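Batch queue: ligand-bound targets. Current item pairs a single chain with coenzyme A. No template structures supplied; prediction is de novo from sequence plus SMILES. Inputs echoed for audit trail.
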Amino acid sequence: MKAAGHDATVCPQGFVSRPMEKNDLPQILEIEREVHFTPWGEQAFLDALTTGDVLPVVLVAEEVVGYGVLKILWREAELLNLSIAKSWQRQGLGRFLVATLLQSALRYGAAQVFLEVRESNTEAQALYRQMGFDIIGSRKAYYACPDGSREDAWLMRWQEKGCGDAA
Ligand SMILES: CC(C)(COP(=O)(O)OP(=O)(O)OC[C@H]1O[C@@H](n2cnc3c(N)ncnc32)[C@H](O)[C@@H]1OP(=O)(O)O)[C@@H](O)C(=O)NCCC(=O)NCCS
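Prediction returned. Tokens below.
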């Protein structure tokens, strides 16, 4: 299934989102190195572009300031990357991107979205909770840390309203 994403979207604050393009990669790799301890390399994004993952970027004045990577699986999806450039954080862009990604998930028939997040990343956890994700488990020593140790991850899940209520 080709899940190349969505048409351009404009949110009330005027942020614009459109599908990622290969030409965006230099800006994306810069943000990736700025905000992640273990940044994705170019090949990971090229693979995501060719496998048809949902890859929205958020633009401000035509500059990429954030992006996400959503892998659509059968009836569920996995949020693999969500990044906002440091100077644009805390302005609602993360919320806008997650809302865009959840709409895409539903469009492709995925009623559940899963993700992993560092135990220490309370900012991202707060965003995900705000968007309706719940913690459903943990993964031991999932992430590498700058001091050489390992950190646990929380596994979080978002479900379409009504999905799983009977469980
Ligand atoms: C996590 C991240 C995507 C949030 O994006 P953002 O654009 O800054 O988030 P928003 O401005 O949309 O904030 C939405 C909510 O997230 C939470 N939040 C975001 N940043 C926060 C911070 N620094 N401190 C506390 N809460 C925070 C708040 O609940 C906020 O809602 P509020 O503004 O009403 O309080 C961004 O900080 C980022 O790219 N971090 C580095 C990469 C990363 O950790 N990605 C997630 C990996 S799982």
